[in-house]
Amino acid sequence: MYKYLSKNSYLRTYTRLIRYQHNLSSFQNYKIHPRLLTLAEEKCHNESDNISSMSNTQMPKINFVQLKYLTNAYKTQLQELRELKDIIGNEPSLADDAIIEYEQLMQQFQHTSDSLLHALIPEDTTSSRPCLLEIRPGVGGIEAQLFAGELLEMYCGYAVKHNWKYHIAEKNTNEMGNITWAVLKIDQPNSFGKMKYEAGVHRVQRIPASESKGRTHTSTAAIVVRPIIKELYNKNASSLVKLNDVRVDVMRARGKGGQHVNTTDSAVRLTHLPTGITVSMQDERSQNRNKARAFEILEQRLQEREISAKKQDLRDTRKSQVPTIERSEKIRTYNFHQNRVTDHRCNFQTHDLDNVMTGESLDKLIEAMEKYELDQKISDLIGHI
Question: Which of 17, 326, 347, 358 has the lowest tally of Cβ within 10 angstroms?
Answer without folding.
Answer: 347
